Write the structure tokens for this entry.
Amino acid sequence: MTPIKPEIPTDEALDAMLKATAGPFDLADDGFSQIVMAQVYNSPLPSLPAAQALAVARQRLAREQRQSRWSLGGAVVGSLIALGLMQLPGGDSLASWQGWGMTVLVLVGTSGLLAAVMLKGKWR
Amino acid sequence: MDGATITQAEAESALLGRASAGDRAAFGELVRLHQARVRMQLRRLTKGDIALADDLAQEAFVQAWRHIAGFRGTARFSTWLYRIAYHQFLMHQRSHPVQQALPDTWDMAASEVDNVLRLDIEEAVRRLPEMERIAIVHCFQMDLSHEEAAAVLGLPLGTLKSHVARGKTRLRTWLAAWQAGEQI
């Protein structure tokens, strides 16, 4: 008697056989949705989990702190630039700055502040 | 066909938006759209225990409602649901660690595959070690891509592929033995 030799299915054949056992994906509802919805109607409205809400609040706080730091930094840098300009050869003392000289100082300070505002928006 | 798919995706997206805002009727539509696949996933996971599978599916949908505001849309909604359903299954397994007996009846789907062979494959898949079985159920019987199955099961892609490969090797050996009329 010749023994039967087991036939090992190929990888593709096995894949096809397994895929053929998929589903069925058209199960009749049979009142399932109604039962689920009865429980859903007794559940509270969905909301962000506490941990997520906390994370959002922390992100907002960190963003605000970054903005404050950039604004302060911008004001300091603007003032330093203005003071630096005054120390250049031919520069004048703050007390003697009048007219167009004061306008330049204000412009430099303002541009420093504006730069800070723009950077904080870009870097946050 | 593409147009129909896009329309369906858009409709689902609109339903999701409404459900996230607290619209229960919209969520009801989503339940109706996805109930069959989630229930089938759980029937596979529970080895055909229909009552248990439906209980877990109900709980999965209720959990989905409670957390729908946290759904970020980085994965498909169905994948997110499968993940919740799988989590429900795991929680049940932890609280009921004893292996359950196989039910006598299995809801067979109409298939072109020979019934005997089909039964053999079903039976073989059920006998696989747990993680190999779960990986094969999701990759083949739930028709998910490996990436989607890995996301549902919370496994690295390589780990999932290893489970699938090991399961398939075991299945090939068993099926060959069955064909030869041997006992496993």
Chain B touches chain A through 51 residues (CB under 8 Å). Residues 157-179 of chain B form the longest helix (23 residues).
